Amino acid sequence: MEILEDTMKRTGKALALIFLLCCLSNLVVFATQGKINEVQEGIKDLEQQKKEAENQANSLSGKAGSLEGDLKEFNSSLEDAAARLNETEEQLTSTRNSLEETRIALEGARIREQEQYEAMKKRIRFMYEMDMEGMVEVLLSAENFADFLNKGEYIVNIHNYDRKMLEEYRATKEEIAGKEQELESQEQQLAELQLQQEEKKQELAVLVDSTSEKLSAARKQLAEAQADVKAYEAEIERQKAYEEELEAQKAAEDAKRLAEIRKQEEEIKKQEEVKQNQNSSTGSGTVTPSSDASDISLLAALIQCEAGGESYEGKLAVGSVVMNRVRSSYFPNTVAGVIYQGGQFSPVASGRFASVLAKGANQSCTQAAGEVLGGNITISCLYFRRNDGTIPGTVIGNHVFY
User: What keywords would UniProt list here (predicted)?
Assistant: First the structure.
């Protein structure tokens, strides 16, 4: 009997020591999970900031594209305005040259008119100064009648010629004067058009300069936003790599803790065998979980968070891990206790679990939770995580169970 008691005492001390080691191991595991949760939250924040930077970049890209379109349109309009202005300047130069030529011709016509007028006055004065007798003498000096008619006709032709030439020069003068007035009007109109086109050209040049400055600023801002996106992407990749390292560390810690739990369970099993031999029934320490509506809601929400996109088999396996922990003496003995145990399930730490719980899990996850709570335990593992090929265990979908 004393030997048995001594054995029981030594076993109790060993179990206490193992339990202490498990507690210390739990603290390490919880610390690592806490880091994982922090990294995951950091990644979420970085992804949100990256999304905002991408939206900013998209907005700036659209703005730059719009400014590029405006600049192209303004440049085209400026080229057209410059071409029209050059054409107007050429027309104005041509008109001024024609006007100068017309004025020179008009001055020549005036001189010829004056000369013709003076010659005509002399001839008229000569004719009037001649008396009738003189004209008769001229006519009578004719050798014959034909000569008489010729001299008479000559006198009349001289008068008619002078009159005709004077009228022609007056008509030419009037025509040239009219052309001068027309050209002066054209010159004025072209000068006004030139001024208007020059003002339009200046306005377009200002628009081109202003739009170019805005486009340059938008491109600079776009480059900065794109650089921010790349920086966020690089930091996200770095954080994900760190998360993978923490996951591997957590997996190793879980494996170590699982070995300790199994060792402790073996010690308890031996202790129970001793007690059974002494007809002492102290129970296994396990608690049969209830399957009320609250447990179903909690387990269904966790299954949806952890395995919502997995097969039905994967959903049952996640639920089985929870129930295996409930039945283990080294985890809380209630569904709520297991789910809310610190550092165990990421969706609980991130708040996603609470959101799904408030809305209610979908039908498939609720059905899986009901089956597991009803006793359909499909796997005997205590842990699972995303499968990256580094942890040995049972692979179901995207998870490895161990």
Answer: Hydrolase
Could you give the 3-state DSSP secondary structure of residue 394?
strand
CA–CA dist 10, 249 (Å, integer): 33
**CATH number of residue 327's parent domain:** 1.10.10.2520
The per-residue pLDDT for 139 is 62
pLDDT digits (tens, 9 = 90+) for 274-319: 556 654 444 444 444 445 779 999 999 999 999 999 999 999 999 9
Expressed in angstroms, the distance from the first to the final Cα of the chain is 41
Q: DSSP H helical segments within 289-385, as ranges?
A: 293-307, 312-327, 335-340, 346-350, 352-359, 363-373
Residue 202 is encoded by which pair of tokens?
A: 């200046």
Cα distance between residue 359 and residue 361, in whole Å: 7
Q: Pick from 184, 391, 395, 194: which is nearest to 310 by CA?
A: 395
Domain range enclosing 372: 287-402
pLDDT digits (tens, 9 = 90+) for 106-157: 777 778 767 766 766 666 666 555 555 555 666 667 677 677 667 667 667 7
Is the residue at 2 inside a domain? Answer: no
Q: Is residue 37 part of a domain?
A: yes
Domain boundary among 284, 308, 328: 284
Tokens of 140: 């009578």
Q: What is the pLDDT of residues 320-379, one digit of tens each?
A: 999 999 998 889 999 999 999 987 898 998 888 999 999 999 999 999 999 999 999 999
> Long-range contacts made by residues 118-123, C-beta under 8 angstroms, separation at least 24?
119/162, 120/162, 120/163, 120/165, 120/166, 123/158, 123/159, 123/162
Q: Measured between alpha carbons, how far is 68 from 70 in angstroms, rounded to an integer?
A: 5
How far, in Å, CA of 295 to CA of 317, rounded?
Answer: 16
Number of domains making up the chain? 2
Structure tokens at 362: 């979908």
Q: Phi/psi at 400 (nearest 5 deg)?
A: -120, 130
Q: Are residues 248 and 373 both part of a single domain?
A: no
Q: How many residues does the structure list for the chain? A: 402
